[in-house]
Structures are given as C-alpha cells and as structure tokens.
Amino acid sequence: MPPFKDEHVLIISPGSQTTLAQLGLPESFTPARLRIPTRMFPAEKRGEWEPIKVRERRTTKATSRDALHGHSGGDVVMGEANGINGDGQNVDGDQEDEILYEEDPTNEEGAVYPLRDGRVADWSCFFALLTHIYNTLSPPFHTPILVISQPTWTSQDHETLTQFFFEKFKTPAFCLMDSALAACYAFATSTATVVDVGFGKCDVSTITDFAINDPGRAVGLLNCGGEAMTQRLLELLGGKGFTRDMCEQLKKNPICEVLPQGAELPVEVEAGNPAAAASTGVIGSGDGQRGSITAQGAVPRGPGPNTQAGDADEEREFKDGEDDEGVLDVATIVASGKTSEFLARKEREKAERAAARKKDAADAAAASKERALPNSKRTKAVFHFHERRPLEDLNSNGKRATDGESGQDGAETKRQKTPEPGVQNEAQAAEIAAAVRKEERKEERRRNKEGTAFIRKTVEVGPERLQAASGGILDRIADAVHRSVLAVPEVNKRSDLWDSLIIVGNGSKVKGFKEALLATLTARYLISPSSATIFSSELPSNFTTPVATGANTPQPQHHASHHGPGVNPLLLAATTASNANLAPPGQSQPQLHQQLQQQQYYQQQQQHHQHSSHAQTPTSIKVLKMPDYFPEWKDIGTEEAGFLGAQVAAKVVFVVDQGLSKGFMSRTEYNEMGPQGIHESCL
Amino acid sequence: MATGQASTKPPDANEYGGDEISALVLDPGYSTVRAGFAGEDVPKSVVPSYYGVIPTDSGNKILFGDNSIHTPLPRISIRNVMSKEGTVEDWDTAANLWEYAITSRLTNAKPGPLAYNGLNDTENDDVKMEGVEEQEKPLRDNPILMTETGWNAGKDRERGIEIAMESWGSPAYWLARNGVLTSFAAGKSSALVVDLGASSISITPVHDGLILKKGVARSPLAGNFISQQIRLMFSQSQPPIPLTPHYLVASKTPVDAGTPSQATLRTFAPNTEPDHSFRLFQEERVLTEFKESVVAVWPGPGRLSGHAQSGGTNMDIARQHPGKPFEMPDGWNQMFGAQDRYRPIEALFDPKMALSDADNPQPSASQTVGALIQSSLSQVDVDIRPALLAAVVVTGGSSLYQGFTDRLNQELNLIYPGVRVRINASGNAVERKFGSWIGGSILASLGTFHQMWISKKEYDEQGPGIIEKRCK
C-alpha cells in the first residue's frame, strides 16, 4: 500500500446540528473548511435525500429565472441539483400550469436531522448526508477517512459505519475517533475531564492517559445542550411575542449571557417608572430566583421594553414624514386669511417639540449612562434579529427567494457546490473556488438590492436574556462532572482530572457559559482547606493546641487565593503558600510558633503545596488552556477544538506512522475481520 | 443421554453465528449492572441497579441510568431491582434495566431495511419490504453470558434464559457463577473467592473451574453494612454529624472545622420534594466518597479492641495515627481521627466493635470474614483446603479499603497457623471492581467455549429447564 499523503486525508465530524468536514491536512491546522447543517430533505422517491429543500410550485407562467425546468419524478438527484442552483437557467415563459421544482436554501421545512441527541435516528438519511459530503469534497481514490464518533454511538453503530465507509467508498483506511479523545489531542493533554456541550445533549468523559473511562462516563445528558437554553429563553420570553427562531438568534447574540451562579440580575432603578421597577422586583440570589422570575413574566410591563420598533420600510416612511414637516404650502395659508392664527399655532407646536426634545435628551442621557455599564448589569438591551419573510410573498413579486442577509447560511450552502470533475490540481481547484466565491458575493449583493427573505428587526429584551441557563442545566452538567470524576476507580487520578477541565461544543459558546459552569463546580464541590488539618493532624499529640490570638497571624504574601473569604488566612498560608513566607511579624510566643512553623514547613515540603492530607477531591478546579500552536484557531474559540484534535490524530495515524500503531483499520483488515475489527483498532 | 452429547458436539455454525460472534457478558450486582462485549478488558456499560420511579396519573414512569436518577425530579423515588440477598427481586424491571444497559451503549436494533439503508445501492426498487420494518429484537446477533451468585437456585436460574431468548431474541445463552468467573479473571482454576460486594460478602470455593456449592458462605457485612456503620457513627457522635447530600445544597461557605455549616439549602415546593429514598440514595454518594477518602482498615497487629504488646490498648495507638479531614457537601468539615477511620469496617473482623442501635443489631460472630472462610473450608474436602488457602482471590468494590488484604492475611494466618496462605488481589481498582465481569469476558471469548453455549434451538426443544442440566 502506498503511503498516505497529507492532502488526501478526509476528516468528518458529524454533529447533531452541524457537520464539519475537510479534505487534506494543511501545513498549519485550520478550522474545518466545510461546515454544513446536519440535515437532509426527503426526495420524491422514498429513501432518497436532497441536501437542499426542493419545493414544488405550480405556476401559470414561469417567470422565475432560476426555477428549474420540468424535472419530473425522482430524477432530481443530489449532485445534479446542487450544480443547477444559481446558474441562471432560463425557462421558457410560455408554458401554462406547469409544476416547477426550485431549490430553497433558506427553507428548513421538512428537514430531517439524522442525528438526534447524538444518536443516529435515521440511518438512511445519515448515509445520504455522508455521501453528500463525500461527493462535495470528491476526494481521490487513495483517501484515508477519519470520522469523529459521538460518545452516544453504540459499538454496533461503529460497526455499521465502518461497513458503510469500506463498502460504499472503498476507502483504503478508516479510523473512528471518540470526540472526547479528539478534544484531548487538541489540548495536548493525556488526562482531562471533557465536557462536550452539544445541541440537544451534553457528554462528560474522563480520560486518563489517553484511555476513556467508560464506567461512569456521562453520555448523552439530555436537555443539557444549546437547545435547552433556547427553550428556556422561549419559556421566559414566549409570552412577549418571541418565537423560537428569535430565541435562537438571541442566544447567539452577545447580549445574551450566562451569569455565574448566585450573581444578581440587574434591577431597574429608574424612579420615574414605578411600574417597571415593580415588575422587575427585587431578585434574590439562590433559590427564590426562579420563582420571582416567573412571577415577573406575568406582570405587565411599561411600553418601553419588548415593543418592536418596526422594520426598515416603516422607518423610512417615518423619516420621509419628518422631512415633509418643514415644507408648508404657504399659498394655501395666505389664501385662507388666517395667517396670524396659523403662526401662533406653529409657535406653540414648536415649544412643545422643544420640551419633548429636552425630555428625549434626558432619556438619552440615562440610556447612555446605562450603556456604559457592562451588558450583564444593564436591565435591558437592544436586540437586532432577522425575521424570515414568507417566501411566497417574494416569489409572487418575481423576486429571488434567497437569504438576503447572506451571512453564514448563504455562504455555507453555497460552498457545497460540487467542484468540476476532472480538476485534480489542488491549486487550480482553490483558484476556481475563489472565483466561485467572488461570483457568489456579487450575486448576493445583487439579490440584496432586489429584495430579501429576511427583515431586520429590533426589540428590547429585559433581564431574561441573562437567564438562558437558569433551567438547571448548569446544575445537571456540574453533577455529571462530579459523578464522572468520582467514578474513576483510581482515586489518585481524580485530582488531576479536576485540574484539567476541557469545555468544548458549540452549546458552550453562549457568552459566560464556561465561566458560569466553572463557578458552579467551584461553588458546589470545591473542598476548602480544612482548618482541622493545621492544628491537629500530623502534629505530635503532646503539642498543645495554640490559641488563636490574632497577634501572630501571618498574612499570606504573594498568592492570590481563590478561596472564599471565610477561610482562616493562617490556614490558607499554611496549606497553600510556598514555604518561608510564614515569618510572623511579632514574636510573642516564639518557641511554640517556631516549632509549629517548622512542622508546617516540613509538611509543605512533603506535600508539594497541596492541602495537607486531603484524600477528598477536588481541592482545586481548573480549566485547561488550548496551546496556541495554530494561529488560525486563536480567534475562533475552542468550541470546535475536537476538529483540531482530529487533524492532529489523522496526521499521526495516517501519515506519520502509516498504521504501525494500529491507529486505523486498513482495507485488508476489513476484508479479514469484517466490521467488528473496528473495535480493535479505533482511537 | 442426548443432552450430554449435545454439549460435546460442536453445534452447527449457523446456530450461533460461527466463530465471528460478538458475545455479550452481563453481570448484575446489587449496586451496578456490568455489561460489555466479550474479549474487552473493561465493561463498557456500567449502570446502577437502582432506578427512579416518578408517580404520574397514568402509572409510574421509570427512569434508568445515572443520567436520569440523580436529578431531584418531583416526587422521584429510588428503588433497586435486586434484593438484599444479591439476587433479582423484580424480574420485569430487571429485564428492562438490563436491556437499557445493553442497548444504551453496546448494541441496538439494526439500521433500517437493507433496501433503503444505503449499504446496497441497487437500481431497482420494485421490492418493497414493508414487513421488515417492525422492531427487531435487540440482541438478534449476540449470544449472551450472564452471571449469577453462588446461592442462586430454583426457578430464578431459569428466568435469565427466558428473557434472553424470548424478549431479546438472543441466539445463544450461558449462565455462569460469578465466583468461578472471578477465579478465571485471576488466572486460576481452583481458588477460594472472597467477594465483598455491596449487599453481601460471599466465599466461593472453586475447584477445577467448578463451584463447590456446599462451601458457599455469605453474610450481609459488606458495603451497605459499612455505610450503615458510618451513618451510626455520624448520628452517635457528639454533636451528631449532619449528612446533607449535594442536591440539597444551593451554596456553601467555607467554615472552620467542627462548626455548623452555613450553607443555603435548597427547598422544594410542597408535593414536589423527592422521596426519602432519593435522599438516602444521594447520601450514599457522600458516604461512598467518605469511604474512599477516609475509612481504612486497622493495620494490626491484633484487633482494634485488643491490647498492644507494649501495653495500652490498640485504640490508644490508633489515636496517634494521622487523621483525615472530610468535608460534607454543605461545607461542614472535620478531622476524622484514626479511631473513627478504623471503626466502621472493624466489625467485618470483630463483631464486638460494631456500632448498633435498635434497628441495627450487632452482627453475630459467625458473620465475620474469618468465620465465613472457616465455615466455607469446613464444608469442602480436606485435601483441597491447602490449595484453596494458597489461592485466596479477593474481589469486589468493598475490598478496596486501604489495608484490607493485609489485614485479611493476618486474620487467616491466625486461624490457620502453619498453612501457607496466599492472597491474590489485583492492585488495579478496575480489575477488583469488575472481577467477575472480566472473567466472563475471558470465558466467552475463548474458542473452546463456543461449543458450550446453549443455542436457541436447544432452548426451543427443551425449554428453560435446560439450564439445570447444562449450567451446573
């Protein structure tokens, strides 16, 4: 078997919402080049699938330039359908009552998501998606494939996938890599607690020395992913006219934040609006919180927040009206003979307007004052969102149905274009791709002018936006982390696991989520240094217990403590500080203290600055930092770090050792052992 | 005898799928159910034997698995499918629980009909196979090896094969004693297996791979008993030590040792509080942590209640040993002196040291580990006793206390002076916890074991009674 090359390696990372894929390993590992939604649309023939929604439309006259001409029956096949979109095919306009098929990349209606909560819910659809990805990237024949597997997949799922890849694509080598392990590779660590917050579920895995601890692994925690947060927002805001789609956009907006446990929600203080103040109420920390918020939702609010400020068209109309204000039909006024009366009225109006303006200015000042506060302290924030306009409206006007905002969705679907067959050269392909993209951008700009499927709207959101995770999701994840770490049989490894927490998955992208999870873990599970250890443990029993007079209390000198203020500083100094800094300022009880200090010094030397003799964990909880070898990943965040790990693993497994360490399953092995062989050689 | 021949003649390949089988090993215990594929070194799926029940208007909703039973849902109560004896009590729920353990991580029904699953891309689609879509049985392709305790008897032995064959559609089945499997895992065909589980300690003499049924001895002084001892120790100390599980704590503040905690506790609206059994179950998690980090076995010499050679009692010596601090979920913390650390487990060796109250009577002298081994050995042939004592295999999660094997060795040397006693206990906590599952994994993956399976055909011919004939 010839050796595998970097540029031939295919990596696929299926997720419940988005699937990442990439052909070729670049010099410096980049974020995934292909991101497509994990969904397919049922085609006309049962068991066949389309990557993009194809709509059927009856028209009396085919005016749409892009409408597909008379594709009848099931011959709209995937690859073909892809290429046709946007090519500007002209349809003869003289046919009557014709069924038209057109692609609608922004429509999600009827989409089937083959992965639900990480599990494969629809194999046929999932296979179609994998085939679609494969065809999109069109790898050469000698392509090894690495697939990141979800922890929820069963052993049998692994076999089914292996069989599919070997028999459908005739791949020479195949590797399944667990997503938690992939995250470990990305963070360059052999031991970690990986919290993978996905769309519908969350997985918590503990990994020691690259081995996943299966017993105690919290796989597929339901209602702990991004969707749970959207649903929570919908629950809170649903009564105020928010739709699910709006909540989804709100969740992704930076004004939506997850506050650490116990943090107080901002309270409206404007005295001028007693209704609002009453409605917000005084929100206590801890338990009462949830109750008071539901109560709050029921109270009617002032007209301020949650009133929609219309769309662009309305705004324009409004502006026009303002412009007209100054223009008067002087002739009519003079002719009517009531000039003085008119002038007096005009004066009055002007004064009123001035007063109003003054009030506006005061309001604006208050608003700007609030704007100076960080988002989490503000009671309300302006939220811009996009609303989908029903397509029929647009189409009936003869406008192009597409995503006007263009943004990511458009680009994503566009990129799925099948490259022209026969293009072998990478550079050439890249060139073509660049050209295609340029073309696409032009097209999008043109469409934006023409009309859009999305309308930009603005609405004010209250403190609900800070409560996306208030439905208990943090508690559930924290409990799962605690449970998983405590299920690791080697008690001495647990401390390391607490110190190397990795939080990945796009569900954790919500601003403040990771910090809040860490805060929850710390608040609930962190063991404070016990004040018992310092006075009684490991000291000879003939020692009298020193009385804490306060005079000799040494101050901790150069370490910032992350423990709460309630802990005795002497204790902290003794259990966590590095030695030698303990010299007390006064020497009133020199002998006893010297002995004590020597004793403590000795203990510290032995315990490497850990809390003395705690076998219980965690005495500290830390989040790992991803090493910054790869500049492309710096700004992108660590949510999709698993894909980086997969590239690292693919490089090692396929290219560097070429199968010496049995990191993948080769075709020969598959022929000998069948799909079951995957269990012996997958990461 | 027809059946005797059947076990020596290899069955036809199509009866169990030939050599390429992916057999499952299912090892139910009081605290967890271990399931996984034969040939692997650790069970992939470890599911608690406890399950949650939520009363609803339309009957009880049942929750399985760690992910769902630790959330304080309204009115949730926690039950266990096993009886305190370590045998299955609630067969219907147990069957569902086991199926959950297998299908959640190991195997599931096959993907859709072949015509549509994309594996065979065929051009003609005129064959519509509507009938195939019905739910296939979960274990259609997997022979299953189940374990049972040494004292499992009667009809209970036949229930397993009925579930496997009837509801799971398994092609083959085998039932093995967990003591025998543990000795296999330790690489011995003859051994005295000392198994410290959650509900019971059991002693199983194994000779040439066969269980010596007369010699099986057991007592309830195991994990749950030690938990009960710790609870008694907490409640009898002055002042009583509060035991608050994690789910009740909303937030905690660090406090000095021994002072009352200043935690904010979670409150539940009336009629939504979890059942008391839920609280006990969650307290058990704290106790497990306490056992792992504080409790240890008195290292000797002699018993904790005895007298040291240098004069003074062992208790006095123990007081000079270092203590261990422990913090409760609500922030309460204390240094537990050595006497407290040794006390809860000492009753396994010395019943006089057990804490007791009205509900928890003192154990009898015949229930200690030493006495159990003695009574077990007295039931087996005198010739094989030395061989068994030279291969004492210690397994089970409750044997992982610091210093347990050393102390057991001392005890056995006191009982059998002059006999060579060798304790065989894996240093690996995984191997110790899942000893019998690992033995099952080894057994089921042996090529020579394939002819042992009871196939579906044999079951159909002879019914569940075949277990008594084949699985001795």
UniProtKB/TrEMBL annotation, chain A:
Acidic residues composition bias: residue spans: 311-326
Highest taxon above the source species: Eukaryota
Basic and acidic residues bias: start-end ranges: 56-69, 344-372
Region feature (Disordered): 56-75, 278-326, 344-427, 546-620
Family according to the record: Belongs to the actin family.
Transmembrane segments: none
Pfam families (alphabetical): Actin
Organism: Cladonia borealis
Compositionally skewed regions (Polar residues) per UniProt: 546-558
Protein known as: Actin-like ATPase domain-containing protein
Biased composition (Low complexity): 568-620
Automatic annotation (TrEMBL), chain B:
SMART domains: ACTIN
InterPro entries: Actin, Actin_CS, ATPase_NBD
Pfam family, one: Actin
Domain of life: Eukaryota
CDD domains, per the entry: ASKHA_NBD_Arp4_ACTL6-like
Family: Belongs to the actin family.
Name this protein carries in UniProt: Actin
Organism of provenance: Cladonia borealis
